[in-house]
Amino acid sequence: MLSSKELHHRRAKRTRYQIAQKSHGRLRLSVHRSGQNIQAQIIDDRIGKTLVSASSLEVELRKKLKTGANKEAAKTIGQLVAERAIKAGIKEVVFDRGGYVYHGRIKELAEAAREAGLTF
Fold first, then answer.
1. Of 53, 49, 50, nearest to 37 (Cα)?
2. 25 pLDDT band (50/70/90 cuts)?
3. Smallest Cα–Cα separation from 57: which of 85, 72, 75, 77?
4. 4-115 sits in which CATH class?
5. Is the dihedral of CA 75, 78, 82, 88 positive or negative?
6. How far is Cα 89 from Cα 73, in angstroms, rounded to an integer?
7. What is the pTM of this model?
């Protein structure tokens, strides 16, 4: 039987494969969450570089947020990554939930990014 980490890795690979098939060259908004923090970054897979990122570990956000492990933090990160992306000229992305269920913090981050102007 596979461990939970191996199962998560398998789901993440499957999600990324499906995204690669359907993205049509769009950039990827990748999300990583841990028990304490949440991070989002927009990646150009053709050149393998991160163009924009936001994290609950940033100094300004650590002062502002009570914790990086709740829906409020996820919403803040979603808005911040969308604002930075629009400033960099990025409007369309593909959402990569990274093997996490589209629920809770992941859903809040995605909805906040959509409200802030990103299209996916």
1. 53
2. confident
3. 77
4. alpha beta
5. positive
6. 24
7. 0.90
